[in-house]
Write a structure and sequence with these properties.
187 residues, alpha+beta, Lipocalin, 8-stranded antiparallel beta barrel, 18% helix, globular, disordered N terminus
Amino acid sequence: MKSILLAAIAALTLAGCAGGAMTAQGTAGKAPEPRKRIDAARFYSGTWREIARRPMTITDGCVAGATEYGPNRQGGIEVLDSCRMGSPKGELKTVGGPGTILDPGFNAKLRVDYKLFGVVPVQRDYWVLDRAEDYSWFISADPTFRDLYIFTRDPQIGAAQRNRLVQRAAALGYDVSKLEFPEQPKR
């Protein structure tokens, strides 16, 4: 587990220093601005399941990815990211920290101050680029076009819905050919 955490530190640190990634059109750029206002109380509560993501070192071997949001003692948002190693019943791996909404009122840009080992600070920004009207799915990215995530409330979605969400991410300008679809637990 210690080697996994050391790799996580290195990956998050390097990811924070990396330049912009390529878009579907093959050019470096900035992520599109979020399109829909977020009801913070509705969105930033409960568990979201990671259906798709761009590969990165920190997630090698991770399946059953999830993000849990809830209130923290300071009146903000507490974020806990988790996954299981190798299978949905594998060893649990988590990292978390407080989140700050960067665009109050619109609520689609979140900065998370992770604490690895409880002390090593790593800061990441996530933009909710699009979401379902009923809050059943969302597409998220960092502002540099590097990372891309598709989350749903339901860990098991059908192929047609998954394809629609991937096509929606492509319509936002992302190269979706590199997406990976980690296994989720069965219902």
